[in-house]
Amino acid sequence: MMETEQLLWRLDCKDTIAVAGFIALLSSPSRDGEHCLVLKAFEDLKSTVYVYVKSIRDFSTQSVSLVPKSRYAYTPLNELKAGMVVNVYGVVKFFKPPYLSKGTDYCSVVTIVDPTNAQLTCLLFSGNYDAHPMIYKNGDIVRFHRLKIQIYKNETQGINSSGFACLTFEGTVRTPVTPRTSSRCFNLTAEDCRTVERLRVWASTNIEPSATAVKLCDVQPVQYFDLTCQLLGKAEVDGASFLLKVWDGTRTRFPSWRVLIQNLVFHGELSEIERLQNLTVDILVYDNHVQLAKSLKVGSFLRIYSLHCKFQPVENQVTSLVLEFHLHGGTSYGRGIRVLPEDNSDVDQLKKNLESASLPAIHCSDTTYVSDYEDSFPPSPESVSLYEVERCQQLSATILTDHQYLENSQIGTILKQKAPQQYRIRAKLRSYEPRRLFQSVKLHCPKCHSLQEVPHEGDLEIILQKGEAKTPDTKLQNTLLYDSKLWTTKYQGGRKVAIHFVKNDGVLPPSNDCLILIEGGTLSEIQKLANNFHSVIPVKSGHEDLEVLDLSAPFLIQGKTHHYGCKQCSSLKPIQNLNSVVDKTSWIPSSVAEALGIVLLRHVFLMTFTFDDGTGVMEAYLMDSGKFFHIPASEILTSDDLQQSLDTIMDMFCPQGVKIDAYPWLECFIKSYNVTNGTEQQICYQIFDTTVADDLN
């Protein structure tokens, strides 16, 4: 606290200040025409002076209070209700580092808990990357001021409101209570410090420490982990991937793959990297992480979250495998990169590891590995040994859902049989296609059995632009089925957008039960509406009624799920036929499709599996909408988490670079059938009534 006289000595006559809680005693014009205002501070009014930092010399960057500041009230997490704007403390249970959203802002996600055992997930947006909470690991403690509480999908959620401010503290007991923030003006009292200490003690016995933080010396293949390291060098590989050379003072148990950098613009001291040799690893980062990777300074300390390690065979070396490190695109499981400050306790420990690291005595190039690793490599994949087949005591990674009476058949025997027949096999997955799993999702018509690709966003934009060009017909608005609203956009040539709100028994339902019809909307507008209403149907004005816009686009959008119809098999009916839908709150896609004369397409996984049981090799295809993987094919293209789950399952089924004898066994039902191709007849095989074991999901 500072006396008024001391404050005045610190200020210059041109300093800019803001005041609160003063009483104006006199206001009179000065000789230059400006007004002079005499203010008096009173203890009872809690008078406060705020000094703009740009004008300060030798002065604290915090606000100067002439009286003790009023205490903020903090709300326990179990007392939060929708509509409240609150101040809260919490311990971080999960977080995603800031990432660029679809707009211009950065977004971060953090789930916090407190001693009430309630938890709150917060979704924070800001155009300033540094304005987000500076969270480095689970167990950190955050203080949020002016956090708005809302309900989203029946869950309480926090979002930043006007004036939102945050502080982050390290969660380790007995470390200094030092706030992390980019703000130069904040309030921290002794009571705040005591609150942080209490939360640290509570978290130490109630929050499980993160098990994902791993040193390089402890890394296992097919593992996702968090790595604390120092950046030694970086280079752009191509537009979609970026190289980071890092180390943590320890050495991997297997050699790691090296990116050839001769033709790359490399930033970093190559002499230092050569000195450290195989204490360094190369990490490739992809997609949304590339921009941040480019901005990293060589020498900085990093924490890389959800880093993927896997085995990869060395080209032209039959018995050699190396570790590859990849930071995949997306933000699932908190995937991302954070720069750690020098005073972070984990950085202190990392520095000690780096200083005590034992440098390798043997020099090796990027393509030659130390001899003591060579015995660690398993042989390259060949065929399943009959010895393994005879053992067959390993549990299957798949489960049969029917036909338990069928006996196991050897693939060698099946390949000699005529079709059609059904078999039960026990084999290992030698390979699968497509390797890029998102390419496996197709649209299947149950009537004509045609398959088609899922349209990309760019294609949808073009289709919807055709609808934008047509002006909504006012004669088709405000009917017994729906109420209508017409908007004219401010830009884009005054584009007309009509939204029709479908009624239920003549009454407009709440938004979470409401189906809306939209004319002239863009893809981004439709997606925003789909997040706020139950369902959206893009339409156009016909001669006598509204019509479905185009079956090349989704005819029904529910959240992030797009429902498509078959153009060949559908016979479109007018929108007024929606009156025949009995349940006008659930808007079941099959019911909507039937009312509109649409044959609903199914999202399916279409993949080819190559099985090997030691007696033969068979290709069988899988066409599944979600039962096999326990993952809905209709949702995977819009969910990073589901894509990660599918990647994990396939990595378990078919781990790269290890002997096939070490692969898990798969029990599957296979049916054979004949296919005529021109004049030739071919036998094909399909997987059915099989599902992934529950413990793999």
Find the structural class using helix and strand composition: alpha+beta
Q: Which radius of gyration do the C-alpha atoms yield?
A: 32 Å
Strand content: 25-35%
The count of β-strands is 33
Largest sheet: 7 strands, antiparallel
Distance between the termini: 58 Å
Helix proportion of residues, in percent?
10-25%
Model regions low in confidence, pLDDT < 50 over at least 5 residues: 1-10, 54-70, 361-393
| Tally of individual helices | 11
The general outline is globular
What's the helix and strand layout?
Layout: H1 4-10, E1 17-20, E2 22-29, E3 35-41, E4 48-51, E5 64-65, E6 85-100, E7 106-113, E8 119-126, E9 141-152, E10 155-169, H2 190-206, E11 223-238, E12 241-247, E13 266-268, H3 270-276, E14 280-286, H4 290-295, E15 301-313, E16 321-327, E17 336-340, H5 345-355, H6 386-391, E18 398-400, H7 411-414, E19 421-433, E20 441-444, E21 451-453, H8 457-468, E22 482-488, E23 496-502, E24 515-519, H9 523-532, E25 535-541, E26 546-548, E27 556-558, E28 561-563, H10 589-595, E29 602-612, E30 617-624, H11 640-653, E31 666-677, E32 680-688, E33 690-692
Parallel strand pairs: 8-10, 14-16, 24-25
Antiparallel strand pairs: 1-4, 2-3, 4-5, 6-7, 6-9, 7-8, 9-10, 11-12, 11-13, 11-15, 12-14, 15-16, 15-17, 18-33, 19-29, 19-31, 20-21, 20-29, 22-23, 23-24, 25-26, 27-28, 29-30, 31-32
Describe, in plain words, how this protein is organized in 3D:
This protein is an alpha+beta fold and 697 residues long. It is built from 11 helices and 33 strands. Strands 19, 20, 21, 29, 30, 31 and 32 form a 7-stranded antiparallel β-sheet that branches. Strands 6-7-8-10-9 form a 5-stranded mixed barrel. Strands 11-12-14-16-15 form a 5-stranded mixed barrel. A hairpin with a 2-residue loop joins strand 27 (556-558) and strand 28 (561-563). The longest helix has 17 residues, at 190-206. The protein is globular, with a radius of gyration of 32 Å. It starts with a helix and ends in a 5-residue tail after the last strand. Mean pLDDT is 82; it is low at 1-10, 54-70 and 361-393.
